[in-house]
Amino acid sequence: MTKTVLITGGTKGIGKVTALQFAEKKYQIVVNYRSDEKQAEQFASKLSLVSGKECKIIKADISTEKGCESLVSKIKEHQLHIDILIHNAGPYISDRKKMTEYSFNEWSTMINGNLNAVFHLSKAFIPHMREQKWGRIITYGFDRAETAPGWMYRSAFAAAKSGLVSLTKTISMEEAENGITANMVCPGDITGEWKEKVIESAQESDDHQNPVGRPGTGEDLARMISFLCDDHSDFVTGAVIPVTGGKDVLGKVFRDTVR
Fold it and tell me: Which residues contact 231 (CB under 8 A, 6 or more apart)?
């Protein structure tokens, strides 16, 4: 039976490459997006062509409870059941701000989009996974998220993702008896155009900022996620997996901050 995968924020960046990875494996794809409907429609057509199955695109802002409810409702309207839930979307504020400089709205958006959305969507789709005794949930973190480090100028994002580590591990424990796994992947410095590039192009690059001697790509994350969602990966659950090319990402941030 064909499995259905939902990828939030899946029309660009790492989510886009991940969607293509699953399309190539002939999964039924549901892609959530927040804006740029034309781009989403074009990408959905490509996914449908690659997978041989009609890709569904659903507009919803999952950084709000209402947006999460809308996404779930529309999926039900399409009479789809989600077998694999990939929490790719997550707001991030690039401005360097101390905790006291965040507005209440900024703080709420960061916590809701990176933590509460995982609660809302997982709560909605886990019951079906339980019924079939199979499911996969993937969340995103950051380097060293499992140690709950302080992260100067990133208090809201760090707080949400550190909380998400615990939530991911808790889901893995609570749902293990139901054949559901929950794991977190933690990207390294995968920035700009590299988010949508493949490994082969990175291997041809002369960028040696990572110990492995090349930049990270969206495909690096997509391949890890694909592995975690495989039928035979059921023994891997509750894991927090760095995909960093061996680079101490957060350590570099700390050193740059104090200079």
Answer: 134
Q: With both helix axes pointing from N to C terminus, report the angle between 117-132 and 65-77 in degrees, rounded to the nearest 10.
A: 30
Q: How far apart, in whole angstroms, are the C-alpha atoms of residue 64 and residue 67? A: 5
Compute the distance between CA of residue 117 and CA of residue 112 in angstroms, rounded to an integer.
Answer: 6
Tally of CB atoms within 10 A around 170: 12
Rounded CA gap, 77 and 71, in Å?
10
d(CA 71, CA 255): 41
> How far, in Å, CA of 172 to CA of 123, rounded?
13
Strand segments, DSSP code E, in 8-132 are 28-33, 56-59, 84-86
Asked if the model's pLDDT at residue 243 lies above 80, the reply is yes
> Which of left, alpha, beta for 222 (phi over 0: left; psi -120 to 50: alpha)?
alpha
Residue 199's alpha-carbon distances to 32, 46, 119, 207, 221, in angstroms, are 25, 20, 32, 13, 10
3-state SS class at 236: coil
Q: CA 205 to CA 208: how far, in whole Å?
A: 8
State whether residue 33 is helix, strand or coil: strand
H or E element in which residue 156 lies: helix 155-175
Tell me the CATH number of domain 4-258, given options 3.10.180.10, 3.40.50.720, 3.30.1780.10, 3.30.450.20: 3.40.50.720
pLDDT category at 174 given cuts 50, 70, 90 is very high
What does the pLDDT look like over 122-151, one tens digit per residue?
A: 999 999 999 999 999 999 999 999 998 889
Least confident among 8-22, 132-146, 219-233, 238-252: 238-252
